Amino acid sequence: MMDAEDRELLERSLRHAVDHHTGADLDAALDGLGWRDALAVDPRTATSSLFELQGAADATSAALDDVLAAALDLDTGGPVGVVLPLLGGARPPGTVAGLTVRGLGTAALARRETALVVASGGEKDVAVLVPTASLALRPVTGLDPDLGLVEVAGDDVGDAVQADPPPTAWDAAVAAGRRALGHELVGVGRAILAMARDHAVDRVQFGRPIASFQAVRHRLAETLVAVEAADAALGAAWDEPSPTTAAMAKALAGRGARTAARHGQQVLAGIGFTTDHRLHRYVRRAIVLDELLGGARTLTHELGQEVLRARRLPELPAL
Amino acid sequence: MDLDTFRASLDEWLDAHAAELAPDHPGPGTLDDHMAHLSTVKRLLFDAGWMRRGWPERVGGLGGSTLLRAYLGEAVTARGLVEPGIFSMTEVLAPTMIDFAPPDLAATMVPRLLRGDETWCQGFSEPGTGSNLASLACRATRTDDGWLVRGQKVWTSLAQFAQRCVLLTRTGAPDSAHRGITALFVDMDSPGITVRPIETMHGALEFCEVFFDDVVVPYDRTLGREGDGWAVAMDLLPFERSTALWHRGAHLHRRMGQFLAEAPAGAVTPAAVGDAALQLFAFRARSRATQYRLAAGDRLGPETSVDKVMLATTEQAVYDLVADGLAADVVLGDDDASRQWRSEFLYSRAATIYGGSAEIQRNIIARRLLDLGADR
After folding, report:
1. CB B185 within 8 A of CB B105
2. Which of A 176-195 lie inside 8 A of B, CB atoms?
3. Can you give the residue ranges of every domain in chain A?
């Protein structure tokens, strides 16, 4: 664990990095300031600080790959890209027979020479390191072109190095990824709220700032409540780490960011609908990050199914 | 005593004394039953020392972190030993007495509340003063004998049981708003006080109207100084939105657990159940952080309005689910369990009204947390 001084130092250098860099440049900046070392020493601080800042700055990096790789805890011989599941689920993106891969990758996947694929379908999950060049990567434009996601496909990539992750490794990696994305969604939500708040205070209609109208105030208040709920849930998901707490926190973070997007869009109104304003980038990011590794709606449904099956609530964080 | 030790030894003690602590009234019981049982439980908890933990020694406490109080309320609520609303009145009123009453008065009175010897009530709302607390009109005038109080309060919880009332009065000019308010600690058996319970849709006579017809209150019963009433109210309300809400969250968790055990298969959708479970989790996480800030000595303020909005929304989500999943019981059932679900469902409709309405909480968030400026 880092002490308070180290944390503050890390946060300051991360803030500088995400404010000035994105993509490959941000990867280099993170390398330079030792973020992966911080991730190994204090995953909570490294993850929560970077991802919230990254979300607020509308930046991208290889950090999600690093978080997943660290949670899989394999000897990868250096940084790797990690193939993500397709939308709509969180099962490993590979299947063992012939090692077929169908998944997604971050923009950083193409920048890394080696890709880590977790595959299921056999007696247990296996993790495979393959040259990224052996996979077909199709850049996704989609809703959020700046995020730079890729679709990943590969057939018979199976003669690569096989590692043997413990049975719970994939679930732990998904949980780590969900916590990271949760913080990024909180950053996105806070950024939208800040934009909408400033606009509401500046924009004058009927001779007064629109921030003085209760309909506007309550939308913004509702947004803060939703974002704070997500933030608190993420704190609890670190205090009591488990796939369940991570899924709940990710669901709340997805909701929070979508609530911010909905209300922020309405408050920013016309200007927020133009590409002159940067709101649209955050609205796009909120939706796509929500869908990655399980969207709020899916996670809520799955949680409900599990609660109904067990006929009991998940254990609550103790005081 | 640290929290872990407290938790372990309290749990053990509660197990060992389960029979004495269990409600002895038949069925769900009436409010009178609950109040009588609350006194019994508080007395047992006080005598064994549990109820004294987390309170300062100068008011009969044993010191220690406020987290101990949060856990005590959680433990007795989660075991169904007390109704959280009436148990938590202590958390609402005692801290303010400790902060504002003359030290001797606090030292005499607070132990009576902790021990369950007395019930206190909170005279804030008035017929013309709901959300706009600073507009209150109940008048207190200086006389040779003390304050002379004339006016009316409404929605005063448990006034018919109460020995004392923390009363907000208008001592400044009628238009002095938050500046001209003074808080008094009033004996409820003073001549001139009339209490009339209000019949509410959930069926318990919890709320009252209280009439003050020339009631004399000695000057040494002033909380803070003349004109400090707004500060008293602002001190009290965050407590109402911290430890007391933590206890309520524990209660909702318990009742949701009981609902899940009873609900017929297929009666509710996974999405609705997942939604309520998420809200309970988020509220718990938020309130937990608040308990730690309180314990660290932070001054709680407008950010507790976020806790209140979350709790009210969660409570309604839980009971909407109950009303769906146990529709036949809630709508038609006349057995004890059905009556209790129905009463709680109806009471949950007020969660966004009492203790500062949902609208007022959002106004506080907008003004104080988002700095959106004045609303007109």
Report:
1. yes
2. 193
3. 1-73, 79-164, 169-310
How far does the CA of residue B219 sit from the closest CA of chain A (Å)? 41
Amino acid in the structure at residue B121? C
| Both structure tokens of B316 | 């309604």
What pLDDT, in 10s, does the model give residues B275-322? 999 999 999 999 999 999 999 999 999 999 999 999 999 999 999 999
* Strand-pair category, A208-209 with A204-205: antiparallel
Q: What residue of B is the nearest CA neighbor of A216?
A: B366
Using the Cβ of A261 and the Cβ atoms of chain B, whether some distance falls under 8 Å is answered with no
Residues B35 and B110 reside in one and the same domain: yes
The owner of tokens 């209300």 is A263
Query: What CATH number does the domain located at A79-164 have?
Result: 2.40.110.10
Residue of A nearest to B292 (CA): A319
Q: Which residues contact B263 (CB under 8 A, 6 or more apart)?
A: B325, B326
A248–B281: do the CB atoms touch at under 8 Å?
yes
- Residues of chain A numbered 101-130 and touching chain B (CB < 8 Å): none
| Residues of B identified as active-site | 240
Contact predicate A310/B261, CB 8 Å: no
Q: Between chains, do B366 and A319 touch, taking CB under 8 Å as contact?
A: no
Least CA distance to A217: which residue of chain B?
Answer: B366
A169-310 maps to CATH 3.40.630.30 = no
Average of per-residue pLDDT values in chain A? 95
Q: Which residues of B touch A230 (CB under 8 A)?
A: 282
A209 touches chain B (CB under 8 A): yes
CATH number at residue B103: 1.10.540.10
Give the distance from residue B8's alpha carbon to the nearest chain A alpha carbon, in angstroms. Answer: 13
Same domain assignment for residues B77 and B50: yes
Which residue among A224, A304, A312 places its CB closest to the CB of B270? Answer: A304
Q: Is the CB of residue A311 less than 8 Å away from at least one CB of chain B?
A: yes
**Distances in Å between the alpha carbon of A253 and those of A170, A181, B370?**
21, 8, 20
Name chain B contacts of A221, Cβ cutoff 8 Å: 309, 361-363, 365-366, 369-370
The β-bridge partners of B53 are: B63
0.90 surpassed by complex ipTM: yes
Tens-place pLDDT, residues A113-165: 999 999 988 888 889 899 999 999 999 999 999 999 999 999 988 666 777 78
Give A192-204 pLDDT, tens digit per residue: 999 999 999 999 9
A75 band by pLDDT with thresholds 50, 70 and 90: confident
Residue B234 lies in a domain: no
The residue among B166, B194, B227 that closes a domain is B227
Minimum-distance CB partner of B372 among A220, A236, A313: A220
Q: Is the pLDDT of residue B48 over 80?
A: yes
B182 with B222: CB under 8 angstroms?
A: yes
Tokens encoding A166:
């413990």
Query: Rounded to whole angstroms, how far apart are CA atoms A132 and A114?
Result: 5
Which of B60, B93, B118 is the last residue in one of the domains?
B118
CB atoms within 10 A of CB B51: 27
Q: What is the CATH number of the domain that holds B148?
A: 2.40.110.10
Q: For residue A89, what pLDDT is reported? A: 85
- Nearest-CA residue of chain B relative to A234? B285
Cβ within 8 Å, pair A232-B3: no
Quick one: tokens of B75? 């433990």
A/B interface, count of CB pairs below 8 Å: 149
Q: What is the per-residue pLDDT for B117? A: 97
Q: What is the pLDDT of residue B25?
A: 86
Domain residue limits at B328 = 241-369
Give residue B138's pLDDT.
97
